[in-house]
Amino acid sequence: MLMNLLIGLSTMAVCLLLQTLLLTIAIRYYTRHREQVSGPSAWKTLKILNIVMTILVLGNLTQVTLWALVFRMLGEFEIFSTAVYHSAVNFATLGYGDIVMSEQHRLLGPLEAINGVLMIGVSTAALMATVQDMVKRTILARQQDDHR
């Protein structure tokens, strides 16, 4: 059990670093392009929002893949796609139970679920902050246009 905790917490730490890196990239991208949000084109706003969302989703998918690699290295799955599927089910906290790990490593499933809840929550918070800023900028731009 102690070894599983060490493996799980180490994997969570790497995932946190990865999430932080991609969150920083997403925030910097938005910061560099947010002036376009208050412009007349709704398409530019949608494009910016979709790019931010894609960066965040790629971060979560990369974490799913990292956990799948850990499961493969531990010998839990022979087929990588099965490891990725099982990892995604854990990360998203779906808990289907159609594929289970051995008793030796099953503690890693709940640890990945905890990781997933936290990281998906961070992604959601970042996306929501982006949307809120976009709405605020759009409202201010329209109010300024009305006063002209």
TrEMBL record:
<keyword id="KW-0813">Transport</keyword>
<feature type="transmembrane region" description="Helical">
    <location>
        <begin position="113"/>
        <end position="131"/>
    </location>
</feature>
<keyword id="KW-0472">Membrane</keyword>
<feature type="transmembrane region" description="Helical">
    <location>
        <begin position="48"/>
        <end position="70"/>
    </location>
</feature>
<dbReference type="Pfam" id="PF07885">
    <property type="entry name" value="Ion_trans_2"/>
</dbReference>
<dbReference type="GO" id="GO:0034220">
    <property type="term" value="P:monoatomic ion transmembrane transport"/>
</dbReference>
<feature type="domain" description="Potassium channel">
    <location>
        <begin position="64"/>
        <end position="131"/>
    </location>
</feature>
<feature type="transmembrane region" description="Helical">
    <location>
        <begin position="6"/>
        <end position="27"/>
    </location>
</feature>
<dbReference type="InterPro" id="IPR013099">
    <property type="entry name" value="K_chnl_dom"/>
</dbReference>
<keyword id="KW-0406">Ion transport</keyword>
<keyword id="KW-0812">Transmembrane</keyword>
<keyword id="KW-0407">Ion channel</keyword>
<keyword id="KW-1133">Transmembrane helix</keyword>
<protein>
    <submittedName>
        <fullName>Two pore domain potassium channel family protein</fullName>
    </submittedName>
</protein>
